[in-house]
Amino acid sequence: MAKTFVGIQIGAISFIDEGVEQVLDILQGEAGVNALMISALSWSYGNAGRATYGFPDHGVAEPDNLQGGAFFEPNPLYYGATDHKNFKAPDPLYKGFDTLADVIPAAKARGIKCYTYYCETSSSAQRHIWQPGWHQMLDRDHWGKTATRPSLMNPHYRAWWRSVIDDWFSNHELDGMLWGIERQSPLMDIFRADSSTGFDEYFVAEGRARGIDPQRAIEGYRKIDQFLQGVRKGDRPRDGVFVTLLRHLLHHPEVLMWEKMWLDAHQSMYHEVAGAIKFYDPKHEVGLGIWQIINTYNPYLKAQYDQSDYGLYADFLKPVLYNTPAGARFMNFSDSWQKGVLADATPDGAYNALATILNLDEFIAPRSEAALAGYGGVRQAVDS
To answer: Where are the domains of the chain?
Structure first.
């Protein structure tokens, strides 16, 4: 990248609401944008839909009730290796609009680089109900129930992604892709009182191949889940919550072995994506977007994702560094842990302990002021 890279994540809805040329005028004239990160495939309001509240001073000020999917026209020639072929967004707003075919030529004429952007969502609330066959790629949780998110080891899911990338880079003048890393391991899903992933037949088979007893691992996850459910209801074990949690992990070491297996599967997913993009042209640039919970708030996830690994697969990183909402988000994260794994501490104690462990003391305000304060130290560091 010879010049300053000024990129923006943007969904098809912006171009539909305000017109391709007008949006490009605003981006270039007001912000000096020279790279678009286009959400060409998404089911997430945060990445592709209109705001649900607090509308900006341009565009259409009403929710779009996003269903989502492909905001481009998938070429059927590239999906022969997968059964998942019908995933074009059914939303009436997008009818007749192809965010790649309609935006890329106009952007290129202005010298703007174009990347596709896909953000894995950590949310278990999204339901791709309208998509025929999507359930074939869904994982299972540690209770054996069908999960709402796809399995990272499911060969059908991997084949579908290879098909999407083949379609994108064979038919559109792209400069690369930004892959947003936002998945969490099963233990972290349990820590946040959410449904987990990582227990379908493909994970079970891989666990056995690694010499892990799947039943012992699943038993450990279930015991930890039941234990933390009790903690959230007010149960307090004699030896304390954190000590008891460590005891569960000690007696079920298969849990951490399973966690490493899940992490390997997750990393191999974006490693494969990076390699596939480079296959079409080594000059293509691969970016990784790193979720703020991973790079800032969560000590376990920060330990999982060693940043030195990113350098082997990425040409650039887009770490999430939300300064203004960071105070409220970190407070909410610490509060959620204080209700579970850090229930031995007070809310202020958990907040301060996490801040110290994560080296955030100089950036944060006291917990009572965090919601409105943002990360004030970030501004002070820049000013100084």
So the answer is: 323-384
